[in-house]
């Protein structure tokens, strides 16, 4: 009896260890989506009054939990009934990541600073307009953010499913559920901190005399916040190309075998550079191709 109990505990410990390891691997693979998710959701709050930022973030977070409550069972059903769909879904998710990344680059080069300034002024004027229905504005922003979250969550779940596809069903369920919870709590917890960091800096500058440590620290936060948002956006975009390109590279046998051939015999650093470079180039080219197709389809529809 005692030996059976110890064996059961050992089996449970082994399963939990496998779940923890696979969850860590899946989290690493979904880092590109995570970086973009952070920047995108923090930007979604732009145009909302300061005292309504956290309620809006919480509303979007609840929507994200609902999205994942739909996506996780769907992913498990696909893995069980149609496992052949996992690789095509991964490829679609990777292509979409590359498309989003390239669309951001295109927006940066095709839109002038005057366009961005005009958009910013429009948001500021909306906040200052007493006749503007801010409740409707919040609802529109929440709906848009939840729709965007559904796409990003689908990518996270698809990438995670590809990581655990060969594992037992119970392990798949545990890892997918863990990633869904950890990513949602982590992303929206960080988003809440990011959107309020400027308020924290402003509070410190108002509560202390000029020249004091807290006052200077608050000014430093206010100076740092815009650069942090830009850095998040850049890192997120780069990660999208690397993660999306990596998925496509592994999904196309010719490219995957070429990388293996070139990196054979190379040291770890050179091999890593070649792999990353291939993923980045593949991601950029795939993003450009998808954007071109989407643009043509839009023009034909018009």
Structure description:
The protein is mainly α. The chain has one domain (2-301). It contains 10 helices and no strands. The model is unreliable at 1-16 (pLDDT under 50).
Keywords:
single chain; mainly alpha
Strand content: under 5%
Number of domains: 1
SSE succession = HHHHHHHHHH
Helix-and-strand structural type: mainly alpha
Compute the separation of the termini in Å.
Answer: 73 Å
Quaternary structure: single chain
How would you characterize the largest beta sheet? none
Distinct helical segment count: 10
What characteristic shape results from the CA principal axes?
globular
Share of residues in helices: over 70%
SSE topology sketch:
Blueprint (H helix, E strand, L loop, with lengths): L1 H28 L1 H14 L8 H29 L4 H25 L2 H16 L5 H31 L4 H39 L5 H39 L1 H11 L4 H34 L1
Explain briefly what this protein structure is.
By secondary structure, the protein is mainly alpha-helical. It has one domain.
